[in-house]
Amino acid sequence: MAITVSNGSELRSALNSASGGETIELASGNYGSVDLSGFNFSDKVTITSQEELGATFNHINMSGSSGMALSDVTVHVPNGNQPRAVWIRNSDDIDIVNSELKGSDDGNFTNDELGMKIENSNSINVSNNEMHNFFKGAKFRETTDLTVRENNV
After folding, report:
1. Burial label, 68 (beta-carbon count in 10 A; 0-12, 13-18, 19+)
2. Which end of the chain is more exposed for a tag (fewer CB within 10 A), N or C?
3. Residue 39: what are its φ and ψ, rounded to 5°?
């Protein structure tokens, strides 16, 4: 079942209502910073942009979550005020695929530390993503069953 949302509060509401197996389609636009912590699904819930890379987040935080996939989204830290664009910790069965992570456009990579940080997690798939304008593309720590492939950093 596909659920279409157009802002951050609708996304949160769709996740709160999801039981597993749903696809949440994001209309193009900026969803700001989003916290995807505490959502657990036995059948994966996919969050995807209706138009390729059309939905943009400023930051994604995830802790204590499982059974989620992010696909075809953009995470753009516009002014270098986040130490990482995506931070996943203490989570299981998470996919980040076909997406773009980019730091600020000011040309100063030192104020955009990491594109992605994943720690203390299990069954993580990071595939076919673009990561640029960061001091470091990604950092992985204490994570098992980690797949990282076909990313352009």
Report:
1. buried
2. N
3. -100, 125
Contact 117, 138 (CB under 8 A): yes
Instruction: Give the pLDDT confidence of 15-53 residue by residue, as tens digits.
Output: 999 999 999 999 999 999 999 999 999 999 999 999 999
Per-residue model confidence (pLDDT) at position 78: 82
- Structure token digits, residue 119: 């720690």
The span from the CA of 102 to the CA of 130, in Å, is 8
- In this predicted structure, the answer to whether residue 82 has a pLDDT above a threshold of 80 is no
Q: What angle do CA 143, 145, 150 make, to 5 degrees?
A: 100
Residue with tokens 């597993």: 20
Q: For residue 69, which of 88, 87, 95, 101 has the smallest C-alpha distance? A: 95
Q: Are 136 and 110 in contact (CB under 8 A)?
A: no
The Cα-based distances of 70 to 2, 44, 53 in angstroms read 14, 10, 11
Local confidence band at 152 (pLDDT 50, 70, 90 cut-offs): very high
The arrangement of strands across the sheet holding 59-63 comes to 33-35, 59-63, 84-89, 114-119, 136-141
